[in-house]
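testing teh design pipeline on a random one, pls ignore if ur not involved
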C-alpha cells in the first residue's frame, strides 16, 4: 500500500514524528520532495509538531524540536530525565553483561530494547562496544527466566500478602514455606527475596535465592510490615552484604591490608574506630555469619577482636 503523503497531512506528521524519534535530522527541502509538497507546508507541519509536543508534556522543554544551523536541519531534543542517553545505555548494557544475572534469552531481549533507545546515528557504535561480550555471554547454570518471578514477587511485596513458596536449598532438599515478603535484592550474580517467616519464629529476615523458588502463590492473607513497623530495605541492604540469614551482630576487627577503601566499599556499615601506622580497627554491623566467611578469606590482613 502506497501512502499519499501529499493528500494526507496525518501521514506526513506521523512519519516526521517517527523520523525525529529515531534521532534523525530532517531537512525541509528533502521532506518537501519526498511528500510532494512545498517547503512552507513542511514548515507548518514542523510548527504543529512543536505545538503538539509542548501540549503533551508535563513540563515545558521536556521534548522539543530544534534547528541545527550547521547541518541545516531539525532534530528532537529530549530532557535526560525522561529518556535514557546513549552513554547511559552503554553503561547499563555493560552492567547487565557483567552481572550474568539473566538467562541468554532475557539478556538479549533487554539489550535489544536498550539499544532501541540509542539514536540511529550512534546505535552501531554502541552495538560494536558490546557485541563481543554479548556473543560470549555465559549465563548462570540455573538457566531460569527471572523477570516474571521478580515482578510477581514485587506485587506481593507491594500488597503485603503472605505467600507460599516451594524452595530448593543448596543441598537439593525442597521445602515449603509461608513467608512475609518485604524486599527484592541483587548481589553477586543472584536475585534474592528477603522475607520474614509467616509464623514469626525468627526475629530477623530470611534470604531466599529467587532462582531456587520452584513455585509460589499468594495466600490472600495480609500482614503488617515488620522490622520496627516499617521494613527499611535500604538500611537492611547495608547489613546483609553476603546474603546470609541470621541475627544482627556487631564485629570488630583489625585490618592491615593495602586498601581500606575496598573494605569500606564491601561493608557499608563499617566504621573506622582508630588507625595506627596503616593498621585500622574497624567495627561493622551485619546479619548472619557471612562476614565471618569473608574475614577468613582475608588471611593475615584481618584479625578479629
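output:
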Amino acid at each position: 500500500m502506497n501512502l499519499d503523503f501529499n493528500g494526507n497531512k496525518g501521514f506526513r506528521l506521523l512519519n516526521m514524528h517517527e523520523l525525529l524519534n529515531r534521532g534523525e535530522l530532517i531537512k525541509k527541502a528533502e521532506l518537501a520532495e519526498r511528500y510532494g509538497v512545498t517547503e512552507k507546508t513542511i514548515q507548518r507541519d514542523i510548527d504543529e509538531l512543536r505545538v503538539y509536543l509542548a501540549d503533551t508534556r508535563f513540563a515545558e522543554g521536556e521534548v522539543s524540536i530544534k534547528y541545527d544551523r550547521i547541518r541545516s536541519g531539525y532534530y528532537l531534543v529530549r530532557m535526560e530525565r525522561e529518556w535514557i542517553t546513549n552513554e547511559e545505555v552503554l553503561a547499563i548494557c555493560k552492567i547487565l553483561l557483567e552481572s550474568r544475572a539473566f538467562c541468554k534469552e532475557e539478556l538479549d531481549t533487554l539489550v535489544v530494547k536498550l539499544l532501541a533507545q540509542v539514536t540511529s546515528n550512534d546505535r552501531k557504535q554502541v552495538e560494536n562496544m558490546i557485541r563481543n561480550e554479548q556473543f560470549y555471554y555465559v549465563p548462570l547454570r540455573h538457566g531460569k527466566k527471572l523477570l516474571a518471578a521478580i515482578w510477581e514477587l514485587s506485587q506481593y511485596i507491594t500488597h503485603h500478602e503472605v505467600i507460599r513458596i516451594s524452595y530448593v536449598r543448596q543441598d537439593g532438599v525442597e521445602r515449603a514455606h509461608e513467608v512475609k515478603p518485604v524486599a527484592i535484592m541483587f548481589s553477586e550474580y543472584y536475585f534474592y527475596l528477603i522475607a520474614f517467616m509467616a509464623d514469626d519464629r525468627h526475629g530477623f529476615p530470611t534470604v531466599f535465592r529467587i532462582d531456587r523458588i520452584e513455585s509460589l502463590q499468594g495466600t490472600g492473607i495480609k500482614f503488617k510490615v515488620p522490622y520496627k513497623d516499617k521494613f527499611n530495605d535500604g538500611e537492611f541492604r547495608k547489613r546483609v552484604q553476603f546474603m546470609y540469614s541470621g541475627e544482627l551482630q556487631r564485629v570488630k576487627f583489625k585490618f592491615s591490608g593495602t586498601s581500606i577503601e575496598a573494605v569500606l566499599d564491601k561493608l557499608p556499615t563499617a566504621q573506622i574506630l582508630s588507625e595506627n601506622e596503616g593498621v585500622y580497627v574497624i567495627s561493622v554491623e551485619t546479619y548472619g555469619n557471612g562476614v565471618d566467611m569473608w574475614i577468613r578469606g582475608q588471611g593475615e590482613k584481618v584479625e578479629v577482636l
